[in-house]
């Protein structure tokens, strides 16, 4: 019996199954909420006509792909363009034909990666459409049933000179971030959360073990974050949901230092500049 993709309407996680899945592994995990009215799963044919599809060049050489209205956790996909092969990090909840054509026009995808399951979106679509190498940190392999991981890695993986994946753990055991030295940008996954004012400026920063449940990281988990981040010089932060061009290494380290110095907390603090 052929496997078919199904997405959970509560969180948007895709899994391939031989029938409607019995549950969603992301929602049954402590970091997410269970659906109040029970499970509902939808196929690509059901999802596709319900969304509008968008893309834009967020900063030079970095393209953002997303859809509206919100579907699941509403992750955004990032495409970093290079003459010798593009790199995609995270994924939108679903891609239509126009979005896939735009990615093809930009040069396709040579390497595909994600920080952790909350940023996976429709990674399976990108792998099927462009056949890139798929890089996932080895401690998160249990969440990748919808894809074929071709390059599991340990603590650091250099995709190309100046572009590297770094294992942070914390939010998920295999959580990892992508650092772009040339653009002075970090694709932080859920290791950082940025809050914006009404004018769109980044003002507050936080980190959590579980956002929905407001569970803080342990002190040692924060120390691991700090040890990774202090090596990286950046001024722009991308998450699976937003980006801020005025948030730096200094801001991240100030958050981690405050968490290490006192009792655990999840509330955001003012961004240090």
Give a quick set of tags describing it.
six-stranded mixed β-sheet; Metallo-beta-lactamase, Chain A; 273 residues; 6 helices; alpha+beta; single chain; seven-stranded mixed β-sheet
Short characterization:
This protein is 18% helix and 29% strand. With 273 residues, the protein is of the alpha+beta class.
Set out the fold topology.
Elements (H helix, E strand, L loop, with lengths): L3 E5 L5 E4 L7 H4 L12 E2 L1 H4 L4 E8 L2 E7 L8 E4 L6 E3 L7 H9 L5 E3 L9 H8 L2 E5 L13 E3 L2 E5 L2 E5 L8 E5 L4 E3 L5 E4 L5 E5 L12 H11 L6 E3 L4 E2 L4 H13 L7 E2 L3
Parallel strand pairs: 7-8, 8-9, 9-10, 14-17
Antiparallel strand pairs: 1-2, 1-3, 4-5, 5-6, 6-7, 11-12, 12-13, 13-14, 15-16, 16-19, 17-18
Helix pairs in contact: 5-6
Name the CATH architecture.
Answer: 4-Layer Sandwich
Biggest beta-sheet profile: 7 strands, mixed
**What is the general shape?**
globular
Contiguous uncertain segments of 5+ residues:
none
Give the fraction of residues assigned to helices.
10-25%
Radius of gyration: 18 Å
Description:
It is built from six helices and 19 strands. The chain has helices at 25-28, 44-47, 97-105, 123-130, 219-229, 249-261, and strands at 4-8, 14-17, 41-42, 52-59, 62-68, 77-80, 87-89, 111-113, 133-137, 151-153, 156-160, 163-167, 176-180, 185-187, 193-196, 202-206, 236-238, 243-244, 269-270. It has 273 residues and is an alpha+beta fold. The chain has one domain (4-270): 4-Layer Sandwich (Metallo-beta-lactamase, Chain A), CATH 3.60.15.10. α5 runs antiparallel to α6. A hairpin with a 5-residue loop joins β15 (193-196) and β16. The strands form four sheets. Strands 4-5-6-7-8-9-10 form a seven-stranded mixed β-sheet, with helices on one face.
């Amino acid at each position: 019996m052929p496997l078919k993709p199904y997405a959970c309407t509560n969180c948007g996680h895709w899994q391939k199954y031989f029938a409607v899945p019995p549950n969603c592994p992301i929602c049954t995990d402590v970091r997410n909420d269970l659906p109040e009215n029970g499970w509902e799963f939808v196929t690509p044919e059901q999802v596709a006509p319900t969304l509008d599809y968008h893309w834009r060049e967020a900063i030079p050489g970095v393209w953002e792909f997303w859809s509206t209205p919100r579907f699941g956790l509403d992750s955004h996909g990032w495409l970093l363009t290079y003459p010798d092969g593009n790199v995609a990090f995270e994924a939108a909840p679903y891609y239509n034909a126009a979005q896939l054509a735009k990615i093809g026009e930009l040069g396709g995808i040579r390497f595909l990666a994600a920080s952790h399951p909350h940023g996976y979106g429709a990674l399976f679509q990108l792998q099927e459409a462009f056949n890139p190498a798929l890089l996932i940190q080895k401690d998160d392999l249990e969440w990748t049933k919808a894809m074929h991981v071709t390059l599991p890695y340990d603590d650091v993986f250099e995709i190309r000179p100046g572009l590297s994946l770094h294992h942070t753990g914390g939010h998920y055991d295999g959580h990892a971030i992508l650092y772009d030295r040339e653009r002075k940008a970090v694709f932080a996954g859920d290791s950082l959360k940025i809050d914006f004012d009404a004018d769109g400026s980044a003002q507050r920063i936080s980190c959590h073990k579980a956002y929905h449940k407001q569970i803080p990281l342990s002190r040692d988990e924060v120390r691991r974050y700090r040890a990774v981040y202090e090596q990286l010089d950046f001024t722009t932060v991308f998450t699976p949901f937003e980006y801020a061009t005025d948030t730096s290494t200094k801001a991240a380290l100030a958050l981690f230092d405050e968490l290490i110095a006192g009792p655990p907390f999840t509330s955001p603090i003012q961004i240090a500049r």
